[in-house]
Specification:
13 helices; 24 strands; 27% strand
């Protein structure tokens, strides 16, 4: 269902455990027939225990957000005009706000701003007043550093220079703290700062973390050396920057019913969070979806990002009875028959899949065409043919595609340079090994010397170019080839301009 100007919708908010409302104030037509129109969605200042009546909806007013750096601003942005599942049309009235909108978003998160607004109102009024009164023009001294009074982020370079943690009281807007040197004293101090809502804790000095008295909403945690974490009720995002070496116990309100967990490479070993709401796995190489479903059967959101990676038992998704959003990127190893039918995922409101097998992409598009017409926000992009998979799935330069300073053409040239090296190694015959590899190195370096004329090769790319060559030499040695690697690396160093 496509939204119309003036529509007022209501949906149940898990954060507030009440119904909330929004209005569509503008429609922006799609630029092409394949695209979906956009709707300007305005959050309204209302919540209730039941769906509103048309009369109640007609009396609603826009929400004026006043939390943190918001100063009586509307939550008003363009989203897909496809109305997500669960949003109920209440009535249609003249738009409450007519001004043009120039902010864009990805999903209908109606109620989130209202929840943040109310949470702000519940914080210590003195802390809120100090936050609002802070000035960009005032500089404060912390240890050996000077910072603006409105600074929001503190890292170890500041923390390690302090004579006393109380010096941080000079930063009333401090909301994010990052440390690799966590101490009980630092944690105790942060628990006394009600406006600190994001903590990056990369320290194994404390095996147990009790955050229940904090107001955190985001926790980025290196779990190495940590055995138990007690989360506060308002935390809605937990990111693990590495896989726990042993079972990690995570205690959360309602077993994680309002929490999203992000982890790297694989499904993390942990206890707790049996009612986890959202799961995001990045850098995945292999994944059995059956294990995901068994471990977290209450998921409403699932994001899988490959390194690229392969996935098995994708059909198990059908057992996620409450799944509303599925997103995959660079995941392979499946076809259309492995993916659940649309009727098996009745609550799905968003389906975003990029860089997937071409056959699967075609089948999923066809299978979910009717659901998309009824409001499913579906985007199936970058279908990959078998030839592409063979040439690119393991190409170490494929990550260059999409980097800010690297054009698509140069990313393609880098990938082709790697393919050319592979082709050169296939022509190696014992006696001419060193000569072939020398020619290969010359051609390889020449590609990147030409690119460097545009100044696109930075430190990261420079290291990658070198590491790709070293890794190829390693593969050749494992195949039993004998050659002078040091001489080849010296040759590269003498030729390169980057």
């Amino acid at each position: 269902m496509l939204a119309k100007v003036g529509d007022i919708y209501s949906v149940f908010s898990p954060l507030l455990q009440q119904y909330v409302a929004c209005q569509v104030t503008h429609i922006k037509l799609a630029s092409s027939p394949r695209d979906t129109p956009l709707a300007a969605v305005l959050e309204l200042d209302w919540s209730g225990d039941a769906l509103p009546t048309a009369a109640e909806a007609a009396a609603m007013q826009p929400l004026l957000c006043d939390y943190y750096f918001w100063n009586k601003k509307y939550d008003h942005l363009y989203l897909t005009a496809n109305v997500p599942t669960g949003h109920v049309l209440i009535t249609n009235i003249a738009p409450l706000v007519e001004r043009e909108v120039n902010t864009y978003g990805s999903t209908w998160n109606v109620g989130d701003s209202l929840a943040r607004h109310r949470r702000w109102q519940q914080l210590d009024p003195v802390a809120r007043e100090r936050f609002k009164s802070a000035s960009d023009e005032v500089e404060v001294a912390l240890g050996a550093h000077g910072m603006r009074q409105t600074s929001t982020r503190v890292t170890d370079d500041i923390l390690q220079s302090l004579g006393s943690l109380d010096e941080l009281d000079q930063l009333p807007c401090m909301m994010t703290v990052e440390t690799r040197h966590g101490t009980p004293e630092l944690l105790a101090y942060l628990l006394r700062r009600p406006l600190v809502h994001e903590l990056h804790w990369h320290s194994d000095s404390m095996p147990e973390l009790d955050l229940r008295s904090s107001n955190l909403t985001r926790l980025v945690l290196d779990p190495q050396g940590i055995t138990n974490v007690k989360l506060n009720d308002s935390l809605d995002f937990l990111s693990l920057t590495s896989l726990p070496t042993a079972a990690l116990q995570v205690e959360a309100a309602d077993a994680g019913r309002l929490l999203t967990l992000q982890s790297v490479r694989a499904l993390p070993k942990l206890t707790g969070l049996n009612r986890l709401d959202g799961l995001s796995l990045t850098g995945v190489e292999t994944l059995d979806v059956e294990q995901v479903v068994q471990r977290f059967p209450a998921l409403t959101q699932l994001r899988l990002w490959g390194k690229p990676g392969t996935v098995s038992n994708l059909g198990a998704l059908a057992r996620l009875e409450h799944l509303q959003m599925l997103s995959t990127y660079d995941m392979f190893g499946f076809d259309g028959n492995d993916f659940p039918k649309a009727e098996q995922l009745p609550h799905l409101s968003s389906l975003w899949m990029s860089s997937l097998p071409a056959e699967a992409a075609k089948a999923i598009k066809a299978g979910y065409k009717k659901a998309a017409a009824l409001g499913l926000d579906m985007s199936i992009r970058q279908p990959r043919k078998p030839e592409w998979l063979a040439e690119n799935l393991l190409n170490p330069f494929r990550d260059w595609d999409g980097r800010e300073q690297i054009s698509a053409a140069n990313a393609k040239k880098a990938a082709q340079a790697y393919k050319a090296m592979l082709a050169a190694t296939r022509s190696i015959d014992g006696p001419n090994t060193q000569a072939v590899l020398e020619a290969m190195v010359r051609d390889y370096v020449a590609v990147f010397n030409k690119m460097e004329r545009s100044g696109i090769i930075e430190t990261v790319e420079r290291e990658e170019i070198f590491c790709v060559l070293v890794d190829l030499f390693r593969q050749l040695r494992e195949q039993g080839l004998q050659f002078d690697e040091a001489a080849l690396l010296d040759l590269m160093d003498s030729l390169r301009d980057f």
